[in-house]
Amino acid sequence: MDAPQTAPDAGRERRKKLLFALIPLAAFLALAGLFYSRLGADSGRLPSALVGRPAPQFALPPLPGANKPAFSDADLRTGSVTIVNVFASWCGPCRDEHPYLMKLAADERLKARGVRIAGLAYKDEPDQSLRFLRALGDPYALIGVDRSGRVGVEWGVYGVPETFVVKGDGSIAYKYVGPIDERGLRERLMPAIEQALK
Fold first, then answer.
1. Is 131 helix (H, G, I), strand (E, B) or coil?
2. What is the pLDDT of residues 137-175, one digit of tens each?
3. Integer CA distances (angstroms), 113 to 4, 124, 175, in order
4. N or C: which end of the chain has fewer CB within 10 A?
């Protein structure tokens, strides 16, 4: 027959059980705190090995029916800042960001400083890309078709949409991952463009 627990032994046993119950709670709270702190992080700004380096060599065919020239890496070394936007008609977030690209394209101050937008139609059928631009507006000064996605891979594209700010010497100054929104345009993309213009 077991001896009855003394009061100090029973108290020690309760503390031990309480401690074991609190360990998972403490682990959960630590993880929740970590996730909460990351919510404020700039998740759209993923590191890119190309930032600070010349744009990769490429030459894309034009988008048939768009009446816009195609573009290549040579077009990025003309002394003007170019915003390269990777888009596709099948991409829902591309539709969400499109009004902000139209706003950028209409910015007279940027136009006066030679800033232009180049579109890279990524893994898309040309007729679908053209329909997309006719429905939503065409902010691009240049458009190239990357049906295979090979050029996108060379640019380090994770997915669409992605936007790059390229300096007039052809070097990539900034990479914006995900759809541009009002805050992203104001707080991240415009400052990157201004910095590239210096």
1. helix
2. 999 999 999 999 999 999 999 889 999 999 999 999 999
3. 88, 31, 21
4. N
Q: How far is CA 171 from CA 32, 94, 190, 196, in A?
A: 39, 24, 17, 10
- Give the model's confidence band at 32: pLDDT under 50 very low, under 70 low, under 90 confident, else very high: low
Asked if 62 and 143 count as a contact pair (C-beta separation under 8 A), the reply is yes
Residue-wise over 47-64: b if at least 16 C-beta within 10 A, else e?
ebebeeeebeebebebbe
pTM of the model: 0.77
Q: How far apart are the first and last CA of the chain?
A: 87
| Distance separating alpha carbons of residues 16 and 28, to the nearest angstrom | 19
Instruction: Tell the burial category of 181 from Cβ atoms under 10 Å away from its Cβ (0-12, 13-18, 19+).
Output: middle
